Amino acid sequence: MNRGGQFFIIMAMVIIVLIAGFVSVTNSVDKKSDVRFYRVGEELKFEGDKILVYGIKQNFDSSGMKSLFTNFTENYSVYSPAENFYYLFGDSSTITFAGLMKRDSGTVNVDFDGVGSGTDVVLSPGVYKTQDIVNPTSSGNLTIDGNTYPFNVRTGQNFYFVVSQKIEGNVYTTKNN
Known about the structure:
Helices cover about 40% and strands about 35% of the residues. It has a five-stranded antiparallel beta sheet, covered by helices on one side. It has a four-stranded antiparallel beta sheet with strand order 4-3-6-7, with no helix packed on it. Helix 2 runs antiparallel to helix 3. The protein has about 180 residues and is of the alpha+beta class. The chain has one domain.
């Protein structure tokens, strides 16, 4: 009996199993690349709070706070791995809606009147857009793709966000209120 041939067959099988193991590990790492999106909500809440505190400590007026949040939200939206960003910031005299959709276009409804009409804001792909809502009521709704997100306008400065991303055919959102 020639056992040398059996040795080579067994070694060939071991090598094939090792290569298959490396390929499956590589594939599983690729599938987890969208995990970054789940940190976006935590990161935005943390950074938004820091921006708010900074603006208050610097004694910025409403115009200064609007400029601060506009710059922050635009820069964050451009460099974040998520796809769609919707923000509301400001005080009880003026709330600013800001949004960016990186790949798609769409219409977002900002409703403060409670009867569902509100203000439609049209977003184009890759274009950061802002729109002011003067004298908002104490509560409102942000409607995006048929989904309604309620929010309350508190005394002082406000910062709300809704961020969404399509992952493997499903749309995931994160928000802060």
